[in-house]
Amino acid sequence: MKLLHTENFDISTVKGFLAEDEGEGLYQLALTASEMGPCLEVGSYCGKSTVFLGAACQQHGQTLFAVDHHRGSEEHQLGEEYHDPDLFDGSVQKMDSFRTFRDTLSRARLEDTVVPIVAPSTVAARHWATPLALVFIDGGHAYETALGDYRSWAAHVMPGGLLLIHDIFPNPADGGQAPYDIYKLALASGLFEALPTINTLGVLRRL
């Protein structure tokens, strides 16, 4: 993927929590899906997943909508395990990843492909009407947050499109269960079929 490792940009310089095989999986899945229509991600953080998805969408002249309030999930807040002081805005005493996210888009040359939507996921979805070829859910991992993301966006996946859910841990000892819970809800709905999981990336196709 030359776009991700050019003289001016290296994906490894972008902050994030995405394994290498998951990033490559996102790119390949979005490359196929974006032939059908636009894609959307919930939870952009500093833009690592956005680059993989956006680079694929760019190949087909498609749009990637990137939904994130950029105030961080529960685990990113001051005093929490994944707090990053470089992303903390002391002037307002809040986490803010948006400036870093925009810098990532600029360096990756994706500003003509990615449409940032700076809002809570449920607010962004309130009047949404565009069918989506791919939805990637990687927002907050509290159950109510993950459930809100699923309820807000799963129905907008077009037939044949993909629903991707990050951080799937069937064994509770390995990680939080909220993403796995909404993955199981999607299967139980009868609207999706499971495709092979990539590391912790759950992959579902809309029937």
Topology:
Blueprint: H1 20-33, E1 39-42, H2 48-59, E2 64-67, E3 88-89, E4 94-95, H3 98-107, E5 114-117, H4 121-124, E6 132-137, H5 143-153, E7 157-165, H6 178-188, E8 192-198, E9 201-206
Parallel strand pairs: 1-2, 1-6, 2-5, 6-7
Antiparallel strand pairs: 3-4, 7-9, 8-9
Helix pairs in contact: 1-2, 5-6
Pick out its properties:
single chain; 207 residues; alpha/beta; Rossmann fold; 7-stranded mixed beta sheet; 9 strands; 21% strand; methyltransferase activity; SAM-dependent_MTases_sf
Q: What do you see in this structure?
A:
This protein has 207 residues and is of the alpha/beta class. 30% of the residues lie in helices and 21% in strands. The protein is built from 6 helices and 9 strands; from the N terminus they run αβαβββαβαβαβαββ. A 7-stranded mixed sheet has the order 5-2-1-6-7-9-8, with helices on both faces. The chain has a two-stranded antiparallel ribbon with strand order 3-4. Strand 1 (39-42), helix 2 (48-59) and strand 2 (64-67) form a beta-alpha-beta unit. It is globular, with a radius of gyration of 16 Å. The chain starts with 19 loop residues before the first helix and ends with a strand. The mean pLDDT is 91.
Could you spell the SSE succession in H and E letters? HEHEEEHEHEHEHEE
* Radius of gyration based on Cα positions: 16 Å
Low-confidence regions:
none
Gross morphology is globular
Q: For this entry, what is the oligomeric state of its chains?
A: single chain
- CATH superfamily placement: Vaccinia Virus protein VP39
Number of domains: 1
Structural class, from secondary structure content?
alpha/beta
In the sheet with the most strands, the strands line up as 5-2-1-6-7-9-8
On the 0 to 100 scale, the average pLDDT is: 91
What is the CATH fold-level name?
Rossmann fold
CATH class: Alpha Beta
* N-to-C CA distance: 30 Å
Q: What is the tally of helical segments?
A: 6
For the report, how would you describe the main beta sheet?
7 strands, mixed
Q: How large is the share of residues in beta strands?
A: 15-25%
- Beta strands, count: 9
Keywords: Methyltransferase, Transferase
Protein name: Putative O-methyltransferase YrrM
GO cellular component, one term: plasma membrane
GO molecular function: methyltransferase activity
